[in-house]
Specification:
The chain contains eleven helices and two strands; from the N terminus they run H-H-H-H-H-H-E-E-H-H-H-H-H. It is mainly alpha-helical and 327 residues long.
Length: 327
Amino acid sequence: MNMTTKLGCYLVGWNPAILNECGEASHRTLKKYVAAILILMIIWGVVGYCFADRYIEIKTLSGKLVVAAGFMTIILCVERFVILTVGKNWTMTLFRYILAFLMAILGSAIFDQIIFKNDVDVKMKEVRTEQINKEIPKRIAYLDADITRTMGLIDSIGRANIHIYEQLSKNPVIKATDVSTTTRQTGAVDEQGKPIEEKISNVTTRNVENPLSGQAKANEAALKIYQAQLDNYQQKKMSVADDVNEEYKNASTGFLEELKALFSILTEDPVALSFYIFLFLFLVSLELLVVTSKIGDEKCDYDSIVEHQLRIKKNTLSRTETNLLNQ
């Protein structure tokens, strides 16, 4: 047995020793299985590589190859699951058909997004433009609300300051009265012989700054803060269109966004839809190569040997169990 056949046995999961006892039919069946598996592994390796490059945004070649190898390994395991099933399991066959349908949808979606890349990019520009046109009025509305609130505060404080300055113009200073109390002895004594003291209150009047001037200064400081906020909001309002455009321009495009754009293209263009259906059916057909071959072909001698060994093992176990029970 040459190395190519051994490698084929490794991919398919067959035992080279059993295959060595089989005829040409089994060798041809092995080649069919290997060819089908290699086709699927190559296709899904490309899908995995493109998916890693475009959507996972892996920059290194080694990382993309790892993802591609992961996709290929999954396909190999799925196909081995079908090939190594002894006999015909219709439940597993139905499940494989459903899985083939789902995998074809996923594969055709990724392939079409790559094939229709330029069309998807044009569609995404239209989508981005619509998103920008919706986002700009929202942000302007938020900024207008902030501007209105801040201007209301500025007007309120300004009116309060006008009233304060009117009062200050009439009374820039106010009179403050200071009262101090002292005690002195009168020279007389009480019944107990203690000196008698009397309290003397001294009242002085002085001019001080009106306290409203401090409130006016605090209001002026608050006005400067609110005016700075107002200028900031107005500046943002002037540049909101440029800011939104820049944000959406630098935003990365997701898989679902491009999938929606692709769906719009397919629904609008019958030619694109026809190509998608063709690619979808092509991938479904490839996915079903192994399972269809497994079901439709006659049993090769490799399968017959495996099933024969299984029957012998079951009979041996049954006889052993019967002998043990009869003892």
